[in-house]
Amino acid sequence: MLMTNFQTKKGEFLVTKFLGKGKSGYSYLAENKNEKFVLKIIHDEPCHYYTFGDKLQSEIHAYGKLKDLIKIPKLIFYEAERKFLLKEYFEGETIAELVANQKCSEEIIFQMLKIAKKLEKHNLNIDYFPTNFVFSKNELVYVDYEFNVYDEQWNFENWGIFYWLNSKGMKIFLETKNILAINQTLESAIPVKEPFLQQAKKILLREK
Fold first, then answer.
1. From residue 159, how far is each of 49, 91, 125 by CA, in Å?
2. 119 with 85: CB under 8 angstroms?
3. For residue 17, is it left (φ>0), alpha (ψ between -120 and 50) or beta?
4. Whole-prediction pTM
5. Mean pLDDT of the region 41-51
């Protein structure tokens, strides 16, 4: 287990666990006075399918936009010069873990659809990839700070849901990082859709 001290202007935090890597940073579980937080350290690694400006400022801007619309972790503080931020921690499994273990129920997907429809009314998409959500106390929490202008191609119904239905592929991806288990090609961010089209259609019809 990872155990290291991380000094900040707000005090020292004990980093105890690596949580994951995203397009903009590495996230860790950090503790201070028996309280848990998420420490996200921004990286400069490129993403071939997504263009960033200032990654830290983008996250702060997204937090300001999303915090009054959906359930997201509270931003505790950040240090621009060191390119990190500290966020509220929510106990629970990620949706990716639930998908991989065939525990992502239709009720959870219905909850996601309601969130997605609310965001659409505000002309927004978020990153619907399952690692960006934690199911905590029977409620979905979007743990990433990212949004984009609404585009039907990248909404939940046409993009995200296919990751939420691909249990076998998600299990392989989490274990091996083989992107071809969940995406159509190595270069694209287009999910494998064909095996799940009918299932997705049935879910969407029931929700409506």
1. 15, 27, 11
2. no
3. beta
4. 0.93
5. 68
